[in-house]
Amino acid sequence: MSLYGLLGKTLKHSFSKGFFTDKFAKEGRTEDRYDNFELEHIGQLESLLQQHPDLRGLNVTIPYKEAVLPFLHAKNEVVAAIGACNCIKIENGKLHGFNTDVVGFRDSLQKRLQPQHTHALVLGTGGAAKAVFYVLEQLGIAYQVVSRTKTSDTITYEEVTPDLMASHRLVINTSPVGMYPKMDKAPLLPYDAISPAHLLFDLIYNPEQTLFLKHGADRGAQTANGYEMLIGQALESWRIWTGSEHG
């Protein structure tokens, strides 16, 4: 038997266990299992590995995509470049880090891009945001990062003016604001500056339409949630773990 799982802090609403359990059944891998592993802090990872010597792969979610890096024995070029890991392959006791968020986000975003989407606002600075930055750089899209705290690389939500919103026609939410169960929340932005030329992309997939996306749709903007990205990154994890192309 091979064991796989999801590493995070609060996982009761996780998509991954159901997805991979169904995937293993569909592929006839009846001996394989996928479990959720909730850790109060990342230092518990070592004991988890000792308790489960049959672990062959892990997905990593909030808040450990960056904190897991010191535990890796090897990182692929994307993890090394962006400093965030959401997929681990375990071979001979060695942890090899990958980032499948990059693949999932890139494939979902590219099919929706229009010629006017040359400048983006990226909301949030966590591990998922780093995958977004990497993809935007690869696609040649300039971006401004928006955070609750101002730094040399970010502006605050209060600094997003209607003119800035109007000129940045791609807006990507990587923060958890609006996620279930706090669905009455949305990033504080001048939504009246949104037009049908905008694309609003929310990495959240639960609920299907966040308040952020609803504000965009109400003003005629194109919108996309994170479900397609989630499927894409999960299938890429499958390929990394099993060597099988996803179907």
UniProtKB/TrEMBL annotation:
This is Shikimate dehydrogenase. It comes from the Bacteria. Gene3D superfamilies: Leucine Dehydrogenase, chain A, domain 1, NAD(P)-binding Rossmann-like Domain. Pathway: Metabolic intermediate biosynthesis; chorismate biosynthesis; chorismate from D-erythrose 4-phosphate and phosphoenolpyruvate: step 4/7. Keywords: Amino-acid biosynthesis, Aromatic amino acid biosynthesis, Oxidoreductase. InterPro entries: Aminoacid_DH-like_N_sf, NAD(P)-bd_dom_sf, SDH_C, Shikimate_DH-bd_N, Shikimate_DH_fam. Residues 6-88 form the Shikimate dehydrogenase substrate binding N-terminal domain. It comes from Cnuella takakiae. Signal peptide: none annotated. Residues 226-244 form the SDH C-terminal domain. The keyword Amino-acid biosynthesis applies. GO terms for biological process: aromatic amino acid family biosynthetic process; chorismate biosynthetic process; shikimate metabolic process. GO terms for molecular function: NADP binding; shikimate 3-dehydrogenase (NADP+) activity. The lineage of its organism: Bacteria, Pseudomonadati, Bacteroidota, Chitinophagia, Chitinophagales. GO terms for cellular component: cytosol. PANTHER family: BIFUNCTIONAL 3-DEHYDROQUINATE DEHYDRATASE_SHIKIMATE DEHYDROGENASE, CHLOROPLASTIC (PTHR21089:SF1), SHIKIMATE DEHYDROGENASE (PTHR21089).
